[in-house]
């Protein structure tokens, strides 16, 4: 299952993220949900001392930050490259 944080849902509703980008990310997460194969996409584990393992998925200028728990994908942030890395470093 793919679950989006409320902040991501609000950004989508406000139109802060292009619709095409949302579709690309959602399709990628659906494929990951079916296969659990991270090698299909440009996914890297984020470095840092976090309670859980966070990953980033790249689609063009945009990045999605997510984690997995109980075979579910939790998307916690979607934004432009410069915004994401300022927040997650």
How does this model look, in words?
The chain has 89 residues and is an alpha+beta fold. It is built from 3 helices and 5 strands, in the order βααββββα. It has a 5-stranded mixed β-sheet. β3 and β4 form a beta hairpin. The mean pLDDT is 90.
Brief descriptors of the model:
89 residues; alpha+beta; 5-stranded mixed β-sheet; 3 helices; 5 strands; 33% strand
Strand/helix succession: EHHEEEEH
Number of strands: 5
The helix tally amounts to: 3
User: Cα-atom Rg, whole angstroms?
Assistant: 12 Å
Strand order of the largest sheet: 1-5-4-3-2
Q: What is the overall silhouette?
A: globular
Summed over residues and divided by their number, the pLDDT gives a mean of: 90
Structural class: alpha+beta
- What's the end-to-end separation, in Å? 27 Å
**Main β sheet profile:** 5 strands, mixed
Topology of helices and strands:
Blueprint: E1 2-4, H1 6-14, H2 19-35, E2 43-45, E3 54-59, E4 62-69, E5 72-80, H3 81-87
């Amino acid at each position: 299952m793919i679950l989006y944080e409320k902040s991501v849902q609000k950004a989508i509703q406000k139109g802060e993220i292009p619709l095409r980008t949302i579709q690309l990310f959602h399709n990628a997460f659906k494929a990951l949900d079916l296969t659990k194969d991270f090698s299909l996409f440009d996914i890297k584990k984020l470095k840092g001392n976090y309670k859980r393992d966070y990953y980033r998925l790249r689609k063009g200028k945009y990045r999605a930050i997510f984690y997995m728990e109980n075979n579910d994908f939790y998307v916690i942030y979607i934004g432009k490259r410069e915004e994401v890395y300022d927040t997650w470093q």
